[in-house]
Amino acid sequence: MLLKYMKKIFTALLLILLIGGCDDFLNTSLDRNATSETIATNRGTLWSLGNAFYSPISYGFSTIDNNIFASASDEAQQTSVSSNVLYFNKGILNEGTNPLFYQYQNCYEGIRAANYFLNYVRDGKGEDLLKLNRNVETDIYSYMRDVQSLNWYIAEAHIAKAYYYAELIKMYGGVPIIEETIENSENEKIPRSSYEEVVDYIVKEIDNYSADLAVNWDQYADREGRFTLGVALAIKSRVLLYAASPLHNSEGNTDKWIKAAIAANDLIDSDELEYSLHPDYRTYFVGANSLSSRETIYAVRRGVSNTMEVNNYPIATPGGYSGVTPSHNLVSAYEYISEPDPNDPYANRDPRLHASIVTNGSTWNGRTINQYTGGADDMSNANSSRTGYYLRKFLTDDLNLIQGQTAQHNWITFRYGEILLNYAEAMNEAFGPTAIPEGYKLSALEALNMVRNRASVDLPEVPASSKESFRQAVKHERRVELAFEDHRYWDLLRWKDAMQVLNEPIIGVKVEKNGTSLDYIEYEVAERKFQERNYYLPFLRSEIVNSKGTLKQNDGY
Prior knowledge:
Elements lengths: L6 H9 L20 H6 L1 H10 L23 E3 L7 H4 L11 H20 L4 H9 L6 H33 L22 H15 L19 H16 L9 H15 L12 H4 L4 H4 L3 E10 L1 H6 L11 E3 L1 H4 L20 H5 E2 L4 E2 L2 E2 L21 E2 L15 E9 H16 L12 H9 L14 H15 L6 H7 L3 H4 L4 E9 L2 E10 L14 H6 L11
Antiparallel strand pairs: 1-3, 2-8, 4-7, 5-6, 9-10
């Protein structure tokens, strides 16, 4: 089934990305002066091909409408009334319109690039090429260093394929498995594999090649951004958690939950890996902090910018435009840690609320947010928040947008907090909340409370409870801990909760001044519609046609 556009990447790879340095893989400029002779012999070509499969990795800050994906779930509402996320909000995805189909294309671009590289170095051809560029007698050290890099790149290519297939099955269920670099004429020959078959393929790639990955890049700072052992184990943890969930495990097979628990435990209990929770929840997501944090397993970097700030700052901030505005549905989920304040509904709450969301009365951009009538952030103003809230997570405070100030923005793809929650969920479903069978590091309860107990959060521990009540505790914790990180929508799908939750309206809060006090009035911002068929995304009609019917559409489209 490969996509008709894929001819482009084949050509690009033959022309080669960045002839030269093996570690500057974020530079994807084309060398259009490469000849067939240099392509066959140039050492830089080898490294370029080993870098190419990283380029299509998803950057979550621009998933839809040039913003994060939160507005597709109950986490937020998009300010603009004409946006691509409405296809999700109204349940009108179809074979003619799927705003995330570019990710399908990107994933297969990455798979093709990985396959091309692996074919390029197959049967010792990679080492032979290195020998052409190194004198193995006089410069054996450089040659052996290059061989080590080559071995890492080979393992990374296999893990990259695992990552891309994990993204594909999250969206579409079963997809075609492509193991060779093929031409468009062969598209029709490749049918969809089942969801279970792709999961098995992902796990096999990880099990076969994770041991050949670098444990970390502490000694190779210029290679940060490449896959490591931790990344491979994180992919496996997420994939097996999804595979064990009700959407894909309707029979409730406990063995699937055990596999998911083992996968998360392999990362948590590894003697080689030293991940830990970042002590300050708020600052972890801002600027370059995630790059040096032991919580980060993998982050995507795209240099400095202010796009997220321009798209999401409160409208009274010069240069700001409210894009993704958090919902009261989400705000209500942040628990009270002491008695509610009748004059301030946002006081005495889970600290992650104020770390993630700007509320009325928040100090933000060097001022106090005022949303009542006549205030600087009056909700009746054009392009103001439709929900009464603004996004804070990921954003650098007080950038001067008029003067073009910028900040680092790193999209965190995998972090230790997620793995602990993966573990808590899987262990509970497999063994209950408090059990620690032989070979496991923690109980489900201990893993969950580790997330809640980090220094900047310091919430009361969840008490021991039944499997059923603990399941709800895990769902709650994922909702607030992982807010806006592109988990909520997919969690609701895999739990089979979407038909209920994503058919509930988005709620906002209006602020009215009543003498010297403020009234917070809940109101319905927008209806939401989710259909049973929306548990999987539709393939575009053009893909079905290009495959001559070999690619079968998901049910209901």
